[in-house]
Amino acid sequence: MTDLLYSEEEExxxxxxxxxxxxxxxxxxxxxxxxxxxxxxxALWKQLADGMxxxxxxxxxxxxxxxxxxxxxxxxxxxxxxxxAPVPYLTSAVVATEALLACGDEELLGRLASGRTIGAxxxxxxxxxxxxxxxxxxxxxxxxxxxxxIADAAVADVLLVPADDGGLYAVTADAATVTPQxxxxxxxxLATVRLEGAPGRRVGDAEPAVRRALRAAAGLxxxxxxxxxxxxxxxxxxxxxxxxxxxxxxGGFQALKHRLxxxxxxxxxxxxxxxxAADALASGEDAEISVAVAxxxxxxxxVHATEEAVQLHAGIGMTWEHPAHLYLKRAxxxxxxxxxxxxxxxxxxxLVDLQTP
Amino acid sequence: MTDADELVRxxxxxxxxxxxxxxxxxxFLRARFDAGLAWVHYPEGLGGLGAPRHLQxxxxxxxxxxxxxxNDARRNGIGLGMAAPTILKYGTxxxxxxxxxxxxTGEEVWCQLFSEPGAGSDLAALGTRAVREGDxxxxxxxxxxxxxxxxxxWAILIARTDPAVPKHAGITYFLCDMTDPGVDVRxxxxxxxxxxFNEVFLTDVRIPDSRRLGEIGDGWRVAQTTLNNERVAxxxxxxxxxxxxxxxxxxxxxxxxxxxxHDLHQRLLKLWVExxxxxxxxxRLRQQLVAGQPGPEGAGMxxxxxxxxxxxxxxxxxxxxxxxxxxxxxxxxxxxxxxxTGRDAGYRYLRAKGNSIEGGTSEVLLNIVAERVLGLPAxxxxxxxxxxxxxxx
Lengths: 357, 393
Prior knowledge:
CATH class of the largest domain in chain A: Mainly Alpha
Number of helices of chain B: 11
Largest interface: A-B, 41 and 45 residues
Radius of gyration of chain A: 20 Å
Structural class of chain A: alpha+beta
Oligomer: heterodimer
Number of domains of chain A: 3
Strand order of the largest sheet of chain B: 1-4-5-8
Radius of gyration of chain B: 23 Å
Shape of chain B: globular
Shape of chain A: globular
Helix content of chain A: 40-55%
Mean pLDDT of chain A: 97
CATH superfamily of the largest domain in chain A: Butyryl-CoA Dehydrogenase, subunit A, domain 3
Strand content of chain B: 5-15%
Number of helices of chain A: 11
Strand order of the largest sheet of chain A: 1-4-5-8
Strand content of chain A: 5-15%
Largest sheet of chain B: 4 strands, mixed
Number of strands of chain A: 10
Largest sheet of chain A: 4 strands, mixed
């Protein structure tokens, strides 16, 4: 049976992650960082990965990980979403890790699990679990080609690159040219990866590894989107209780109360959908449908929540100094990441036998 | 303290002593009530054992597996969901003994005489008067939207007993015998064509003071118990995927490819996702209740289902194309139950319009969520300190 609640251990994990983020990842810190040349917070990453061992949650203990499951990862992602934390957690600890789990590469898995090595799957962030992805050329044993839209590639130590022989190759970042792209989401920046005769080590077959990685990513992204939506709702409610116009708190106007109540409903629903996806990924039962349902539902809710946050904060919500825009940008980028809601609805049509005309 | 194992033991004992195959249905239900297995969280002697509420599922599962008859709870939703918890909390010992057993077994069905033509969402504005004559109250007024009054043996009734105080203060709560002289139930035909609810005219109805529930003038507080229970009614039940109103639409889509269009496909998939997510939210709420940690999600479930039912049934009518122009039956009937599955898409579309009105309009429920869950400021109140008789109407 699907377990949609949080266990005591999961709540303890949440509290620990939230404490760390409260101390080290305040909105002002994030804002300051995205204005610099190094938007990623690698000190925070080290604390999460090294200090708390969270990079290896999905990796079995025998391979140097924590042997936990997608349920715990989902809780971590909720908190990271709530803080729009600029760390490569989803990309390294989930996507690259899942790809390597499919390949069974123990050595590299262990390094990613420790957090001392950051991995990135060199597949565009927009790619849906069932969509085609770009492969580079393998010629005379070395790799040639350019890949775009690779999230967190700027901080990756190892890139996992699909090649045209059907293999997935581990390429060290030194062997590639990684160039930052000007990204819509400042907290999860994209980069191009250019390979000009780069050596790579074949770790396994690309197709199953990429499918598995993107499916887990899409399912767990819903938990990040839940965190983003939850922040937007909580902050907006708090602000509307304080902000006064016409001699009363703005939150007392029915037109706004109804909008916030509606947003609360959507967030409550998103929590159930995200939990169902995380649980299904952990158990392997009903995973395809649960992931598609969660991703078809999550993106519009997170976008709606952050758009409401900007609108209801009004003038201050439009400013660079207020963090609302960081969340709006994350939510909007997340609505494209690992497949749009529409793409996931189309996938569902096949999965639940509601065929196109 | 009664735990799950103890409840299983008692349930099996009940089944041993009253084998469902050879026991009369009503006899079985009475025996179940007397064994304290009707609603385990009620006190002993009143159909329960004082056990934790969430353990009811343990009993229900045992009885279902044994093929035991159930009390057809849907027929007496108001009795079970609203009258019973209110009688339990505010009733005298004599009232509890008299009413709870036949209520639970379904021998006596209840209805609710609350709403009036001038008092819907603003329920406390009600004008039905109850005037005391010795040990009797004489009631005059009109109630409306009374579901199932034509099948009901008893009613929970609120009436004004003191017009000179502010509207919430002058109300008293009664248990009204629907067979008494002066109670006139008239069907109120609805947009579906049938009369599921009624107008009820009360003319010199005489209610003995022994059937007053709670103190004189305390009726509003008593009614809060009833209304809170109305909104908590969800929970406990588990719905399979496509178990709600999306089911018939999905079935039609699969079986009738000639009806499919691209526009309908987009809308169907969107609603399918929303229905599945609402189902998951209801399941999450159920799991919270079972774990003894009820969340505030329940406050939103009715809102979500009302909107979904309306959108899905609206889509269903369109999906049927030419058939959507027809209606199964406009005959005026007075049903015992709302039949969402036995009738056609047009009926579902029309009946679902009531989902955002009955039991509190969606607009009022949004206020409740905003104020009680999110803690936003309450609506301004201009009638709070004014005597009811001085209010404009």
